[in-house]
Amino acid sequence: MNTNKLKNLKTNFINWIKFNISVPQDLKVKGTLKNNKSLLFFSIIIFLFGLALLIFTFFRRGFSKKATIEFVYYAFYMLMGLILFPWCLATRKNPSKLTKNFIQPIHAGVLIFLLDIFFAFITSPNINVYTILVCVTVIIPTLFFVEPVIYNPMVTILLFSIMPTIYKNYGLSTVFNDLLFIFVINAFSLRRWKSLVNDYNHEQKQSEYIQTIDKELALASNVQKNFFKHEQTKFSDWILATYNKPMAGVSGDFFDIYNQGENLQGLGIFDVSGHGISSGLVTMLVKNIIYTEFYKGLNDNLKIVLERINQNVIKEKGDVENYLTGILIRLEGNNVNLVSAGHALPILYKAKEENIAFIKPSDQVAYGAIGMRNVPVNYAEYNFTMEKGDELILYTDGITDAKNEEDQTYGKDKFLKSANRNITRPLSTQVECIISDIKNFTQNRKQNDDIT
Question: 3-state DSSP call for residue 28?
Fold first, then answer.
């Protein structure tokens, strides 16, 4: 029974060491590099401090017996600097190799400093030296990444070794204070170390979580791209060029093409509110609804078709708060039937007149978007003709709302000027040039919305 208890105690102790004191190699490397930045500076300062005091003592006391003790004391400071500086430089060049060693630069620095204090206290026991010892032993685990499995025994052994001198000069009460201090500093060092380990583990979990999210976002983006992929862009009377750039992996914008072979029957562009995965999922839900209703309503008024789409989207998405704006277009020969559900009206270019402008809002009373529960809608309808060479530029507000580093908005005027400047180029080149103009305007500012 006693043997089992001992085994359990041993196992529990090893597990406690494993989970509270031992750390992964990369955390050691990270901690060692962090220590080195401070230790390099510290080694120079401590060397110069020792040298200055050594020179000062020489001019003040010469080579007297008392001065010799101080010389040795200050020489230890210089020695610490001479050992730490090259060691830190070597560790900086190859941290992985040296952090595998049991004794690292920080441990050497602590050991030399403690020996220096020990020497000073034994040769000349005074409260100032003891105060320095107490302050330094508290500061080291606070400022540095120092392992308690090495640091704690160092401090404990040193303090126990000077206890006879403490008792002789300051009495039993100071010895008890010293014992209490040993307990407190060891507990503090362990707690500080455990905090560093916990922070590291939290960072690792957070990093793994972010990597998982990034992978899932990349997968979702790939699925969405394949879902909305359109192989055909050339038809008997029409040619299309498109561009879609999500703000964050998955797009809340989408366009759709409705055709039978070479006959282009219609198209649509839609912008779901919000960004990221939630809006991306809504695009995949509503795409099927719009596609199905468009073909079911080929003989119905397009405005009624869009109203049916609205009702179906509200029903299917349930409590999801995202809504969408959009434009649905039906093409019959040269006739274009366009219905807008709260979406920005497109640019129309008439080749014969060489005129380019945004389609002007009609006098119709129009309100509402798609997918907003308990919100009445009345969509605006437009009918016009297009001849050979004419162009219709549909877009989402990620273009006009794009901002530069001065927080200025790209706006409709710049967009129209860009479209006009490139209108004679091949269609795909026009799209590339417009996007290039937007990027030149926004400069290094991060994209703040999906762009289509």
Answer: helix
Contact 442, 403 (CB under 8 A): yes
Angle of CA points 137, 142, 143, to nearest 5°: 105
- Selection from 426, 415, 354 nearest residue 390 by Cα: 354
Nearest to 432 by CA among 424, 442, 422: 422
CA dist., res. 81 & res. 29, Å (int) = 22
More confident residue, 379 or 137: 379
pLDDT by residue (tens digit) across 71-118?
A: 777 787 788 888 878 877 877 777 666 555 556 777 888 888 788 778
Cα(302)–Cα(266) distance, integer angstroms? 11
Provide the CB-side half-sphere exposure for 222 (13 A, CA): 6
Residue 217 has pLDDT above 60, yes or no: yes
Q: Give the H/E segment covering residue 217.
A: helix 172-227
DSSP label at 255? E
Backbone angles phi, psi at 445, to 5 degrees: -70, 140
137, burial (CB in 10 Å: exposed 0-12, middle 13-18, buried 19+): buried
Q: What are phi and psi of 260, to 5 degrees?
A: -125, 100
Concatenated DSSP letters for 114-136?
HHHHHHHHHHS--HHHHHHHHHH
pLDDT(120) > 80: no
CB 324 within 8 A of CB 272: yes
Which pLDDT score is estimated for 349? 96
Q: Give the mean model confidence (pLDDT) for residues 177-188.
A: 90
Residue whose tokens read 């020969």? 333
Which pair of tokens denotes residue 45?
A: 């300062």
Percent share of the chain, pLDDT over 70: 90
Cα 87 from chain centre: 34
Instruction: Look at residues 266, 275, 267, 289 and name the one whose alpha carbon lies nearest to residue 245.
Output: 275
pTM: 0.62
